[in-house]
Automatic annotation (TrEMBL):
Cofactors named for this entry: pyridoxal 5'-phosphate
Superkingdom of this protein's organism: Bacteria
SUPFAM superfamilies named among the record's database cross-references: D-aminoacid aminotransferase-like PLP-dependent enzymes (SSF56752)
Known catalytic reactions: L-isoleucine + 2-oxoglutarate = (S)-3-methyl-2-oxopentanoate + L-glutamate; L-valine + 2-oxoglutarate = 3-methyl-2-oxobutanoate + L-glutamate; L-leucine + 2-oxoglutarate = 4-methyl-2-oxopentanoate + L-glutamate
Protein name per its UniProtKB record: Branched-chain-amino-acid aminotransferase
């Protein structure tokens, strides 16, 4: 697809960009440009362009504001030693976005065009990629319904955009075990719902229990499946893994209520490469508790694009605490290998990295 390019008339100064990259935070600063493609039911995808980053003009009746017809992805771009900018498994993100689009009655976007939009944006904003330890340029492709109407049907006008934000470590600079609050009052998703689509509504539903977790001094919230003996599902935005004493790696099976994480899939592959037996199945909270108590579960960690891999130190279930060992050997080894692949310092055996600029 041909992209028109309109460069920013007053881009961020080198000095200001250097100040931002010195302490990028997470999701608070944005690059100078955005990639955009429009869609209509009559003409399909059209008007591809890169334009200055800025506010979006929307009609008050835009469908996304009333019926939450919206999806998004989360990715990172890394600066390698050859000076190039690379991202991790972008075609997997493109495929997942299309799966989300089908579920939310939005149009699918050709996977090659999805990746091209990333390339077009990075061609303009590659100087925004930070190089500090644990830092990257966070990429946020998203799609939303723009048609102005008040009727419950799929919108006939849609926009796809990509924005980018320099990002530091999600949970702070030092890798340390996090505390997780078990939500007993709320469920993240229901069978037949939108749990396996990456749509904003799922995250909106997690905000209240996340606030409860914060009030309890916890970093994240764990959701359960009350229909199946309180089987664990996922955190507010991360998948969960448990390491056993006999070299197994356990993770909840994808049953339609859990997001199919790209990092999750990569962790499973790296664990198999290490000779671990991976079990994707229902795992109850009771099994987690018993395993930690009798020593058969030796490590627990969460994973996702933003935080990569983070050890879980304590699970708080009401007045009860299930304590894990913290950053264990397996957690550290898989994290080091995954980050090494992403940063270009470890062999990319599976061909996961893609050069953007």
């Amino acid at each position: 697809m041909q992209f028109d390019v309109l460069t920013h008339p007053t881009p961020t100064s080198e000095q200001r960009r250097a100040e931002i990259l010195a302490d990028p935070g997470f999701g608070v600063n944005f690059t100078d440009h955005t990639a955009v493609i429009d869609w209509t039911a009559q003409n399909g995808w059209q008007n591809a362009r890169v334009e200055p980053y800025g506010p979006i003009s929307l009609d008050p009746a835009a469908a996304v504001l009333h019926y939450a017809q919206e999806i998004f992805e989360g990715m990172k771009a890394y600066r390698h030693s050859d000076g190039g900018v690379y991202t991790f498994r972008p075609f997997a993100n493109a495929a997942r976005m299309n799966k989300s689009a089908v579920r939310m009655a939005l149009p699918e976007l050709d996977e090659k065009v999805f990746v091209q939009a990333l390339e077009e944006l990075l061609a303009q904003d590659k100087e925004w990629v930070p190089t500090g330890e644990g830092e990257a340029l966070y990429l946020r492709p998203f799609m939303f319904a723009t048609e102005a109407f008040l009727g419950v049907r799929a919108a006939k006008e849609v926009t796809f955009r990509v924005i980018a934000s320099p990002a530091g470590n999600y949970f702070g600079g030092e890798l340390k075990p996090v505390r997780i609050w078990v939500s007993r009052d709320f469920a993240r998703a229901a069978p037949g719902g939108t749990g396996d689509a990456k749509t904003g509504g799922n995250y909106a539903a997690s905000l209240l229990p996340q606030q409860q977790a914060a009030q309890k001094g916890c970093d994240q919230v764990l959701f359960l499946d009350p229909l199946h003996d309180n089987a664990i599902e996922e955190l507010g935005g991360m998948n969960v893994f448990l390491v056993t004493s006999d070299n197994r790696l356990l993770t909840p099976a994808l049953t339609g209520t859990i997001l199919e994480g790209i990092t999750r899939d990569s962790v499973i592959q790296l664990a198999k490469d290490r000779g671990m037996q991976v079990e994707e199945r229902r795992i109850t909270l009771d099994e987690w508790d018993r395993g930690v108590t009798d020593g058969t579960i030796t490590e627990v960690f969460a994973c996702g694009t933003a935080a990569v891999i983070t050890p879980i130190g304590e699970l708080i279930d009401g007045e009860k605490t299930i304590a894990s060992t913290g950053t264990g050997e397996v957690t550290q080894a898989i994290r080091d290998e995954l980050l090494g692949i992403q940063l270009g310092t470890v062999e990319d055996r599976h061909g996961w990295m893609h050069k953007l600029a």
